[in-house]
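Quick one:
INPUT:
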């Protein structure tokens, strides 16, 4: 046997020389392939298709993939190794990561700055000229920790129970450092003078990057004392960046309310607004803040990964081949697929649409029960299972209950209309009509607005802000964090929110 074999990834056109027996899991996460269950062979989320060479069918493949899928070459990447030359189709993992090019007020100064949105799944960085706030370069990457699972709880478990905390910290710092090195190279500046790097993210990413113990977040009441801003020099992190800039991870607001929500408040100017409004970042963890310049309250809800295609039988991210839009018409369902290719799976916005359409057609009951049997065909071979509907019910109930508790704290009537801003990729692409139909959001459609990547925009505002020197202490004192796990109203309200609305005006 040769001492090297070649793995070719299409349509990326990348060829990688590997030692025989190299697990695919150790290679493919760098190219966007996700492992939602952490590589345990319990889901279908990492499936790839062989188009050259061969991969034997393993027991997990046979359990989780249909005979037709196996015949077409689909395999679970987490259970496969490269023993001979192999060509894989990974086109389903090409994706567009939400960046930001909004204008904002700033005080110019000399030098360059970088902002990083450190997401659970993806990373995006922008290099700015501090004299003009002009974006000079953008770089995106997959969070290297997606190989361990698609949600933060899998990483908490690996850190606390698996004893891998130090390894996770180093893995994340290396991944961000590599991205920033490529970002600076992309800009091709003759004499770069990098002054500051500002990072933002959820509380788990904050703790992992900063090397803070995750034990307090592993169980109730899910509160951590280490929420504050952390500062480093680039060389402390092992980064070789020009000027050895200061690296600042912005402070968090609560147990599972991160600095990304602090940045969202800055981006939407909630802290300056006379009008009361909602800011919602809907992902694996739903982070919500309601308020204005007089008062702000934030909560987090464990929505699970359904909004990002996780734990869905044919779920996937919003990438090529994903059904992202489903409408009801002429007694049937009509699906749109990203990239106008054959459907491969269902992303979060498509899931919400599919259930909303099923409710409209009477194929799904308000209880969530499928009238048509065990599954609802969408576009072959993609179908919606009874379990998928249940996962969406759990996710939407968590968000709806968080919103209900916040409204109660402000003594708002149930029918009181509030401007609602949706942050992040899912919030920007989900249909407002469908979100209201399943009971995820309430109020008139015209009051619901996509807000873009508020984490990245807020990080840029923080980059120029003098308040960053004090860790935004004054602003943080004005924001109340409400732990829903300790709220006596939450559990009853959550159970009541599981059902879908009978109809929506």
């Amino acid at each position: 046997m040769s001492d090297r074999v070649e793995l070719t990834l299409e349509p990326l056109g990348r060829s990688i020389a590997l030692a025989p027996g190299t697990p695919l899991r150790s290679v493919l996460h760098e190219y966007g392939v996700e492992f939602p269950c952490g590589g345990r062979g319990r889901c279908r989320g990492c499936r790839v298709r062989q188009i050259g060479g061969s991969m034997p069918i393993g027991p997990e493949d046979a359990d989780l993939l249909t005979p037709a899928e196996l015949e077409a070459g689909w395999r679970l990447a987490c259970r496969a190794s490269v023993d001979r030359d192999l060509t894989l189709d990974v086109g389903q993992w090409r994706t567009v990561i939400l960046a930001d090019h909004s204008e904002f007020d700033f005080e110019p100064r000399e030098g360059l700055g970088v902002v990083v949105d450190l997401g659970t799944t993806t990373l995006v960085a922008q290099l700015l000229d501090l004299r003009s706030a002009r974006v000079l370069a953008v770089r995106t990457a997959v969070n290297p920790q997606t190989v361990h699972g698609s949600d933060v709880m899998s990483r908490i478990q690996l850190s606390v129970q698996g004893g891998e905390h130090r390894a996770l910290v180093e893995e994340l710092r290396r991944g961000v450092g590599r991205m920033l090195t490529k970002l600076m190279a992309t800009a091709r500046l003759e004499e770069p003078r990098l002054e500051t790097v500002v990072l933002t993210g959820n509380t788990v990413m904050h703790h992992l990057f900063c090397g803070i113990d995750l034990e307090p977040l592993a169980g109730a009441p899910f509160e951590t004392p280490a929420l504050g801003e952390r500062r480093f020099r680039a060389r402390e992190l092992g980064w070789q960046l020009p000027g050895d800039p200061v690296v600042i991870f912005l402070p968090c607001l609560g147990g599972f309310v991160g600095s990304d929500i602090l940045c969202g408040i800055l981006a939407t100017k909630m802290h300056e607004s006379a009008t009361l409004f909602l800011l919602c970042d809907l992902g694996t963890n739903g982070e919500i803040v309601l308020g204005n310049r007089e008062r702000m309250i934030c909560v987090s809800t464990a929505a699970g990964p359904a909004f990002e295609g996780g734990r869905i039988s044919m779920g996937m991210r919003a990438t090529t081949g994903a059904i992202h839009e489903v409408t009801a018409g002429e007694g049937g369902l009509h699906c749109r697929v990203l990239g106008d290719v054959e459907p491969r799976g269902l992303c979060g916005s498509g899931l919400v649409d599919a259930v909303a359409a099923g409710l409209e057609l009477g194929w799904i009951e308000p209880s969530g029960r499928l009238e048509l049997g065990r599954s609802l065909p969408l576009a072959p071979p993609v179908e919606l299972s009874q379990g998928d509907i249940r996962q969406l019910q759990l996710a939407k109930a968590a968000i709806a209950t968080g919103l209900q508790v916040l409204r109660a704290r402000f003594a708002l009537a149930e029918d009181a209309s509030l401007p609602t801003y949706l942050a992040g990729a899912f919030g920007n692409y989900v249909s407002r009509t469908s979100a209201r139909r399943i009971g995820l959001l309430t109020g008139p459609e015209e009051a619901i607005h996509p807000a873009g990547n508020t984490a990245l925009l807020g990080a840029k505002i923080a980059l120029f802000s003098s308040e960053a020197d004090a860790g935004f202490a004054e602003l943080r004192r004005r924001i109340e964090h409400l732990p829903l796990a300790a709220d006596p109203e939450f559990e009853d309200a959550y159970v009541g929110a599981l059902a879908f609305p009978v109809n929506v005006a």
